[in-house]
Amino acid sequence: VLYTLHLSPPCRAVELTAKALGLELEQKNINLLAGDHLTPEFMKLNPQHTIPVLDDDGTIITESHAIMIYLVTKYGKDDTLYPKDPVQQARVNAALHFESGVLFARMRFIFERILFYGKSDIPEDRVEYVQKSYRLLEDTLTDDFVAGSKMTIADFSCISTISSIMGVVPLEQSEHPRIYEWIDRLKQLPYYEEANGGGGTDLGKFVLAKKEEN
């Protein structure tokens, strides 16, 4: 069972991973704005009250990166999505940390103030901070994918965040051609639209609508 919210980038990263592995996960929707993650029942599953959370027949795994690694390690037919080779694995780990520590963190600086604190403005320094992260990703993409020539779970994490933030902080194609080529590669996946396409676009639209409402 995956406790999830399709608007959430980390949740969509797990959904992409499951689809890539051919897994059909039972999903239970957790509405963060309604406080579903703060109920006693959910707090027992994850005291940090974040999503996604995976309940694999009683084994509870929290945090999207940990869940993706767990799924690939346990259910993957090979190690392509999360290589066992120490050098390749280190590159994937580095990209995962870049996603959580830079891309997702800088997106949260903007989204949380609008969604949870009722703000209607986006400070310019936060916009610039996101734009700098775009440039870092552009420079990172020296190959077809974020960790090298093959697609890995790091791509799923990064695309889930990028597809959400670019609807709020524009990503100029002329300045970031590698990112757009990478996005186009991932969009060719047969499960991309179901697992990430709509959710990524919808989150950006939801944030902008909430901004106007505030």
What report would you give on this structure?
One of its GO terms (molecular function) is glutathione transferase activity. It comes from Anopheles funestus (African malaria mosquito). The chain is built from 8 helices and 4 strands. It has 214 residues and is α+β, with helices and mostly antiparallel strands. It has 2 domains: 2-75, Glutaredoxin (3-Layer(aba) Sandwich); 86-213, Glutathione S-transferase Yfyf (Class Pi), Chain A, domain 2 (Up-down Bundle). A 4-stranded mixed β-sheet has the order 2-1-3-4, covered by helices on one side. The longest helix has 30 residues, at 86-115. It is globular, with a radius of gyration of 17 Å.
Would you spell out the secondary-structure blueprint of this structure?
Layout: E1 2-4, H1 9-21, E2 27-29, H2 40-45, E3 53-56, E4 59-62, H3 64-75, H4 86-115, H5 124-140, H6 153-165, H7 177-187, H8 192-213
Parallel strand pairs: 1-2
Antiparallel strand pairs: 1-3, 3-4
Helix pairs in contact: 1-3, 1-6, 1-8, 4-5, 4-6, 6-8
